[in-house]
Each structure stands twice: as C-alpha cells, then as structure tokens.
Amino acid sequence: MDQKDEKILEILREDSSLSTQEISRKTGIPITTVHHHIKKMKSEGIITQFTINVDEEKAGFPIEAFVLITIDFEKLTKVEINQHEVLRRLLKHPHVESGYVVAGETDIVLKVKEKSLHDLDVFLTQFVWSVTGVRKTHTLVCLRGK
Questions:
Q1: What's the CATH architecture for 3-43?
Q2: Whole-angstrom distance, CA of residue 21 vs CA of residue 29
Q3: Predicted confidence pLDDT, tens digits, the chain (146 residues)
C-alpha cells in the first residue's frame, strides 16, 4: 500500500458510497488513478466490501449486548465439531452482528442487537442454548457507547 491507497481508504472509511469523482476531488488524486487503486485494493483483498453503518436504535434495535460463551469441549469432541463450527452456527442468527473465537476463559464472543430485553432473553434461551456445545453464557448489556 502506498500513500494514495491510504488517502483513498481514509475517505472510503468515512463514506463508502462516494463516487471515484468525489474521492478524486477530496484527495486531489486523478479520477483514473483513484479507480485503478480501488480496483487493485479489491483484487488484493484489502477492500473486501462496501458497507453501511446503521443507527440500530432508530432502526428499532436499541438493545446492544455482548454474549460471552464458554464451550463444552468434551461434548464437541463427541459430536466431532470444534468451536469454529459453533461460531458459524451462531452467526446464522440475523441479530448477531459479529462473533469471534477468542482466547481466555471465554471461548466465543458475540455482539448482538435486539428490540427489547425480552427478545434478548428469547435469543439466549431459545437460540444460543440450543446450539450444541454451549456450556455457559455471560451477557453484558451495553448502557452507552459507540
């Protein structure tokens, strides 16, 4: 990556909907050069997708929580799956914004958005606990942040 790539990425991080012409105007880099650099960064896997940021509260999902999951590795061994497969299954739920296999006392961390505490309860008791290998959960409800 060079300085032009870095300038272009900085602009795209702020607003990925900008045209190459708008990026060119903001960076002072010629339009064809901007196009070439974006195409190159996409082909190299530096840019993997263009996305949006949603105000989840305005979209009707004001509850944000982190769910820390401890895995029952003995059970996983019996059914011949690993924690990555457990995470893959958990990520299928539409209210799971992101998830990670982590090191430490916790094995998986999920970031979840829900409409209400009741819906969060349903998510935990009816979905998370139904996934094979989940031994324990610890839920952190966010009060404020960004």
A1: Orthogonal Bundle (1.10)
A2: 9
A3: 899 999 999 999 999 999 999 999 999 999 999 999 999 999 999 999 988 888 878 888 899 999 999 999 999 999 999 999 999 999 999 999 999 999 999 999 999 999 999 999 999 999 999 999 999 999 999 998 76
Two structure tokens written together for 18: 């900008």
The predicted model scores a pTM of: 0.74
Instruction: Put residue 64 in one of left, alpha, beta given phi > 0 → left and psi -120 to 50 → alpha.
Output: beta
Token pair belonging to 114: 């829900």
Residue 2 CA to residue 113 CA, distance in Å, equals: 37
Closest CA to 5 of 54, 57, 43: 43
Delimit the domains of the chain by residue range. 3-43, 63-141
Residue 132 near residue 80 (C-beta atoms within 8 A): no
Q: Report the top-level CATH class of 63-141.
A: alpha beta
